[in-house]
Amino acid sequence: MISRRSIRVKLMQGFYSFEMNPTTSEEKVLSGCLESISRFNALMMFNLFIIEQTCNYANEYTDMLRSLRTRKVRDEELSTRISENALIQQIRKAPSYLKALKDEHFELKFDSDLFKKYFTELKNSDSYSKYIALGSEDLKDDYYIVQELYTHIIMADKDLDGLIEDMYPEWADDRHHIKSIITDILKQLSNQTTPNLNEMISAQDRNFVQSMVNAYLFHHNEITDYIKKRLTNWDEERVAELDMILLRMGVCEFIYQAEVPVKVSINEYLEIAKQYSTPKSSEFINGILDRVLKDLRAENRVLKTGRGVVES
User: Fold this and answer.
1) Number of domains making up the chain
2) Residue-by-residue DSSP string for 27-40
3) 124 lies in which domain range?
4) Which long-range contacts (CB under 8 A, 24 or more apart) does 55-61 make?
5) Would you call 96 helix, strand, or coil by DSSP?
6) CA 128 distance to own-chain centroid
């Protein structure tokens, strides 16, 4: 489920730590990158936890209303339909979700008053009134109400970012990707498709991570030499460390990732540079990678395999 770009970002961060401490072993660099991906999975589960617990608050709310003696409670106020939502029930019983609850102890990390806050906002919306008034159950209706809760209420809470980032520093980097994945999970559930919440990183992507760590560390000097030869009119000492890391990663993919088209590699690192480095870094990286690629092709070192890759 995690995208290759997010994987590349986590590799970049792992390699940055390595450059700060070059004696770090390959095993530690690899385990650090995989641990970062594991925390991505925990973040995703934490988002599902917030959704599930907000919907579950409907039960607590109706119990509170039933105990009132000061006013008559309307029947529609006693609806627990959102808690019984088919999507929420599937999330609730998913083995990977239950395991995350046990391992991560989300309930200790989050103020339960926020569930009340989010539920109250949802309860006061026109969409919620229409939802509980529906006569029949429909997965699409279940999807739309949960999606509205997540997108327009939970993710719209500006204070939430700070709370999550205190627990998971990666949240700032992963927020938009997590949001996209959660939306996709809800959509799959509404289509009666069971998403594989266990496979946060595929075997192919895991091999990509292992191969990149091995190539970056084992061929570090060789790859750096290719880059240095093309740093004409540039003082190597003034090249940003992050730019050098992205250049090395790009060259690693040219030579050691046979299934990745060179255009994909270049475009990915240009986009990462735009997000994480200096304003002119992407232009600089594009120029250097283009020159190094020509050198590598002249030496017949760019050997790509697979459909749509050979000609790249």
Assistant:
1) 2
2) HHHHHHHHHHHHHH
3) 4-190
4) 55/82, 55/83, 55/85, 55/88, 55/119, 55/146, 55/149, 56/83, 56/88, 56/115, 57/83, 57/115, 57/116, 57/118, 57/119, 58/82, 58/83, 58/119, 59/83, 60/116, 61/116, 61/119, 61/123
5) helix
6) 29
- One domain, residues 105 and 147: yes
pTM of the model: 0.86
Separation of alpha carbons 45 and 190, rounded Å: 18
Residue 214 within a domain: no
Q: Give the residue among 280, 294, 297 at the shortest CA–CA distance from 239.
A: 280
Is the domain of 252 the same as that of 163?
no
Chain-centroid distance, C-alpha 28: 22
Residues 234 and 180 in one domain: no
Q: Which residue has the tokens 């760019």?
A: 302
Q: What is the pLDDT along the chain (312 residues), one digit of tens a residue?
A: 789 999 999 999 999 999 999 999 999 999 999 999 999 999 999 999 999 999 999 999 888 887 876 666 666 667 889 999 999 999 999 999 999 999 999 999 888 899 999 999 999 999 999 999 887 778 999 999 999 999 999 999 999 999 999 999 999 999 999 999 999 999 999 998 877 776 678 899 999 999 999 999 999 999 999 999 999 877 677 789 999 999 999 999 999 999 999 999 999 999 999 999 999 999 999 999 999 999 999 999 999 986 555 544
Quote the crossing angle between the two packed helices 4-20 and 241-256, to the nearest 10°. Answer: 120
